[in-house]
Amino acid sequence: MTELQKLGMSLAVAYNDDESLLDDFTRHAQDIDEIYLPVPCDVAGTMRIWYGSAPEAYKQTLPGIAARMRDLGIAVDMVINTNYMPFHEHARVARYTAEVMDMGIRRFTICDLSLARAVRELCPEAEIIVSMSAGIDTPARARHWQREVQPQRIVVPPSQNKRPDALANLSKMGIPLEVIV
What we know:
Elements: H1 3-6, E1 11-14, H2 20-27, E2 32-38, H3 55-72, E3 75-80, H4 90-101, E4 107-110, H5 113-122, E5 127-130, H6 139-149, E6 153-155, H7 164-171, E7 177-178
Parallel strand pairs: 1-2, 2-3, 3-4, 4-5, 5-6, 6-7
Helix pairs in contact: 4-5
């Protein structure tokens, strides 16, 4: 048993289009619950500069990454942190989530509630994770997301993750919380 397992913890680790990371993930698979990777920048912009390969080349790597992680028992989470996506783009991005679900990517971290609704409608079996960028800092906000898309968990914004009272309040919703440290 590893030290993290003794603490009842596991890791969510970023994948940034660097295939050498996959070997590291293999060596530490017992401690990793999931890797998270960005949505291709031609599907939806992110809040970060993209340093990876061209979108089409990146997309071609996704089935292999998903298969390798599945073989290791590690889930893959695609992050769609797009705060300012025009409403008319939601259906197109939701269709892309359906495509990658066929590859085995079933978790999506989303900060836009309207986009999360579109994903839930098209892919009811998708695991939706509320991004910390959504700013869920009160039970009322958590309840609203719960009613709308039934998220699997909420990533708590940094302003709340060091406040035991705030975490206790949010945990009353019954939705698992993720804290980034």
